Amino acid sequence: MFNHFDEQGQAIMVDVSGKTCTLRTATAQARVLLKPATLAAILEGSVAKGDVLGVARLAGIAAAKKTPDLIPLSHPLAIHHAAIEFRHDPATGELKIEATVRAFERTGVEMEAMTAASVAALTVYDMCKGSDKSIAIAEVVLMFKEGGKSGTFRRGES
User: Fold this and answer.
1) Catalytic residue list
2) Burial (0-12, 13-18, 19+ Cβ within 10 Å), 83
């Protein structure tokens, strides 16, 4: 059984060297709650700090690649694909950020996708905080993962 502790209870990085490389994909979502006027400014490109979604996209992609620097026991992976997509609801001010990461590796890319979505959401906050202090990052969740021994997970399915 894999875990992050040795027999003495000390934290360790799980040894995945004996596992087979397979194509791993994960998608995570972060929800950012803004005032509708703030979301409108983002979509119009009129936020004082510039292109919010463009910068958030780059921040998320960069974060996926830096996950082992941020999450102490995660493995450094050769990421083959990282993408950030945005969906929005102008009436409510909700912005959904979806991060998808793919790699041919021995371990999954869930943490990379969740880190990417989180950092993209934080970047939206950072770029808009001057005009909207009420911004909230509501949740970061794994939406989908496939590859590896544990198979496929899709949020909402049993």
Assistant:
1) 126
2) middle
